[in-house]
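Appendix B. Chain record.
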Amino acid sequence: MSDPKGLFTKYNESVLIYVYLFYLFSHMEESLQNDIVVPVSEEMPETKKPQKVGVYALIILLAFSLLGLTYFVLKDNGINLLEDVIGDRDNKQENVTGDNNVEDSDPEECTVCTNEARLDNGGWGLFSLPQYGFGVEIPTYKMLSMPGIDSAQNIYSYWDVKHADYAPDAFDISWYGKVHSDLEHHVRIEFFPSRIPDNFGCGQGCVKEHVFDIYIFENDGNENYEQVKKKYIDIFSVFYPADNEYGTESHKDSIKWGKNVLEYTIVGIGGSSKGYIVIMDKYIFNILYYIDSSVVESQQIAQRVLDSMKFE
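Structure tokens predicted for this chain:
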């Protein structure tokens, strides 16, 4: 029989030592028994022979010690007796974990950073819609927006992401940029107080909010920037004619996110909003937003949210 690892060769010396020690321990036991003398008296009852438990325990202890020594001697010479057992088990566990990670991932939507995601803003989260090629970074920033009488009554503002499908009542707006295709998806990113006190009402900017509405349409005609831009300019002229007393609109060609975009501003009675029309091969994005400017730090973070948007 072949011995590819030289295992039996490595064992020879250890086995011989073990046999020799076992021989010595066996004779030690016989010697101890012969040396034990128990006096016999007519008046004393017959006594039991001494137990051999102590000698056997010593032999077992030394045997295990020898086995341990043999293991480490072989390991030092490059042979690990437990490698095949433990190593294969660890590898199998790693493969199972890796497969589970792939199966648990959702290709349709990611609301938290993936392991491979590289963010422009460290410590932020990544919200993405891979099916539309859209992503945006979400801050962990919070701000005291409504101080109360004590700390328990303070109201803070937080960043949040909502889908129109989940909260349709919060997405009532008269114009969302429809040109020809139906609305595919609507996402709102907002910085808003966690709650609004009863009987509290005000206009745009009174709670220092920031709002980004992302309207996504299918570019079913595979139209280029100039073609889509013309259609939006025509829509602007319909909704906001020159003699309109309820609102005005202005637009211009611009560069944003490394792309040609149509930048526009709408000023109405209730406030103003800005926006960008982004034309991609498969989808058209209308980014309509409002950034409050009353708190400089919060305003700067909102601008970074806008700048972090990705279109692929």
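Further analysis of this model is presented in Appendix C.
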